[in-house]
Amino acid sequence: MTDPNNPYRYDGGQGNQSPSYGTQPNSGYPNTTQQPGYQSQAGYQGQNYQAQSYPATGYATQPAGTNGMAIASLICSIVGVSLVGVILGHIALNQIKSTGQEGKGLALAGVIIGYISMAAFILWILFVVILAAGSSSFDTTTFSSF
């Protein structure tokens, strides 16, 4: 025979029905839930769980796009304003590191091209100065006028 107080027994769809969703069957054990107006049992501490929070849209946040100073750095370095390109490139690298924006490659290219073009410009100036100094060292006293 089956126990008539067993809430999990099958009675062929007739007679007693199992408790509905959300109700607890009488299991024969003492009730461990706290009743209003009563203190909790000694030594028993309830678990405090915090719900996880998710972004409101359900999608991960995207970076804010390519850094504008990185683009300006590359353009200035290519056009020939090397010092401005180098300065903008270093500022853009710092911003990209702190904000997570895209454009690190553009900023690096702007800095590298800027340094290379500044070095080429300085070498060109030195070459012109040395060439001009060398051409004026001819002795003009050997040429006599009649």
List the helices and strands and how they pair.
Layout: H1 68-79, H2 82-99, H3 104-135
Biased composition (Low complexity): 34-46
Domain DUF4190: 69-123
Keywords: Membrane, Transmembrane, Transmembrane helix
Task: Give the CA-based shape.
Answer: rod-shaped
Q: How much beta, percentage-wise?
A: under 5%
Class from helix and strand fractions:
mainly alpha
Could you tell me the mean pLDDT? 77
Discrete helix count? 3
β-strand number:
0
Largest beta-sheet details: none
Query: What oligomerization state is this entry in?
Result: single chain
Gap between N and C termini: 147 Å
Radius of gyration: 42 Å
Order of helices and strands: HHH
Helix content: 40-55%
Which stretches are low in confidence, meaning pLDDT under 50 for 5 or more residues running? none
Précis, in short:
The chain is mainly alpha-helical and 146 residues long.
Looking at this protein, list some descriptive labels:
146 residues; mainly alpha; 42% helix
Structure description:
Pfam families: DUF4190 (PF13828). Keywords: Membrane, Transmembrane, Transmembrane helix. InterPro entries: DUF4190. This protein has 146 residues and is mainly alpha-helical. The protein has a domain of 68 residues. It has 3 helices and no strands. The longest helix is centred in the C-terminal third of the chain and has 32 residues. The N and C termini lie far apart (147 Å). The model has no long low-confidence stretch (mean pLDDT 77).
